[in-house]
Design brief:
Blueprint (H helix, E strand, L loop, with lengths): L8 H7 L4 H6 L15 H8 L3 H10 L4
Length: 65
């Protein structure tokens, strides 16, 4: 499974619920946030000062084999 910086945060969490732990580990309180339906990964990382490439790598890394 791949993730991109223009993917919506809510779409990621809905289609790949195992990624929720990554959002929480990066201190992103996106779970249940109404903005998650509009925010892309890029938006969330920029607004929270998170390295986008590290976050995307963590998302990919949590995908079960």
């Amino acid at each position: 499974m791949s993730f991109a910086s223009d993917d919506l945060v809510d779409d990621i969490m809905r289609t790949a619920p195992h990624t929720i732990r990554v959002f929480l580990a990066f201190k992103l309180a996106c779970v249940g946030c109404p903005i998650a339906t509009f925010h892309t990964v890029d938006d969330a990382c920029r607004e929270h000062g998170i390295d986008r490439e590290k976050f995307l790598a963590a998302l990919v890394g949590c995908v079960p084999a």
